[in-house]
Amino acid sequence: MIEPQLINPQSADSEKQATKAPNATPIRLLDTQALGAIGRPLLHQQPNGELTVDPLWRWTSFPGQYLDTALRQEVESNPNLRLVDSASAPTVAATLIVWDLESPGGTQLVGAVEFQVTGTDRAIHSKVVRASEPVTGEMPGDLAAVAGRLLRHLASEGLTSIAHEGK
Fold this sequence. Notes:
By secondary structure, the protein is an alpha/beta fold. It has a single domain, classed as ABC-type transport auxiliary lipoprotein component (Rossmann fold, 3-Layer(aba) Sandwich), CATH 3.40.50.10610. It has helices at about 10-20, 35-40, 65-75, 145-165, and strands at about 25-35, 45, 50-55, 80-85, 90-100, 110-120, 125-135. The chain has a 5-stranded mixed sheet. Strands 2-3 form a two-stranded antiparallel sheet. The longest helix is centred in the last third of the chain and has 23 residues, at about 145-165.
């Protein structure tokens, strides 16, 4: 099963949480989701015709919930972002659009997230962030840790680009 290990921000990061920059970009997290195909279990047909669920791709919770947690952890640990619940703040919607294993020259877990930011002027900007993390050992190997690192990396890169555009 995929149970991404999302490491909580370290104690040094929690100090950053208390010390937000005075000009931190306020954002409102509107929606976090995953494409339906990402959350769907993969089926394999056995030689005898029986269908079995691939245990490697069965999520213990909805994939969008892991992405939401990763986004919230990144906002907490980033002194340049502040999560607010205000209609006057830019809103962010994130959709996990790619989640797959690739193996050119070594197994990599690849992910992509589309970020849609609706500014205070109601203009909508989209950005797709793609990243990968190496998987070591035989499958499933360290897939849980790799999945957690990949989600945090995608969240960090997307939110950092939003903070820079907001300035």
